[in-house]
Amino acid sequence: AEGEVVDPEENELPRKLEPFSLVNQSEEEVTLNTLKGKPWVGTFVFSSCPGPCSRITGRMKQLQQDLEGVDFNLVSITVDPKNDDPEKLTKYADAFTADLANWHFLTGDMYVIYKLIRNDFKMPVGEIKPGDILHTNRFVVIDAEGNYVDSFTALEDAEYSKLKKRINGLTTIKADVEESTETTDEKDITSEEKES
Q1: What residues contact 115, with CB distance under 8 A and at least 6 apart?
Q2: 25-36 in b/e burial notation, b at 16+ Cβ within 10 A?
Q3: What is the dihedral of CA 114, 120, 124, 129, to 10 degrees?
Q4: How many CB atoms lie within 10 A of CB 191?
Q5: Over the stretch 17-74, which tens digit does the pLDDT of each residue have?
Q6: Is 142:148 a contact under the CB 8 Å cutoff?
Q7: Which of 25, 74, 142, 155 is the most exposed place for a label (fewest CB within 10 A)?
Q8: Under the phi-then-psi rule, with left for phi > 0, alpha for psi from -120 to 50, and beta for the rest, what region is 27?
Q9: Is the pTM here over 0.70, yes or no?
Q10: How many CA atoms within 13 Å lie on the side-chain side of 9?
């Protein structure tokens, strides 16, 4: 209906991601398929960024600590793959004391990365001049099936809280069923009365 679409990009969600193949800080191939099975949060940064990247990656580190024990992955994708090789990304990860058990720092072919950001996430990205790269500050959320489901400006505290709730919602769906199988006190009382 007319007037319903405020932001067409947001209204397209959830949206299935196209397959991609990149390389992490340990030179291991990471694909959309290898990330399936767990939800993940993605950000777009680069190691020599003079702007907000250090705050974005710092927030990812906070997210990893705040949601310790939650089964999800963090994925930081460089927007400067010409300079950010696995060795540079390892140093970048070390600077934030990132726990690499569930956090990938990805690099690879610039065309693959920019296509993923522009076509699948519908976010801006592009080199303005060497060392100056336009990119989004948004944190994207992908479900366990590889669908792009949400994004947040998580440098803001209120949005960060929403991001945490969204990830928790994607990882605790199965646990809710188990809680409804408790026996009531009434049944215990009646069985005790029958015995006496």
Answers
A1: 18
A2: beeeebebeebe
A3: 0
A4: 10
A5: 999 999 999 999 999 999 999 999 999 999 999 889 999 999 999 999 999 999 999 9
A6: yes
A7: 155
A8: left
A9: yes
A10: 11
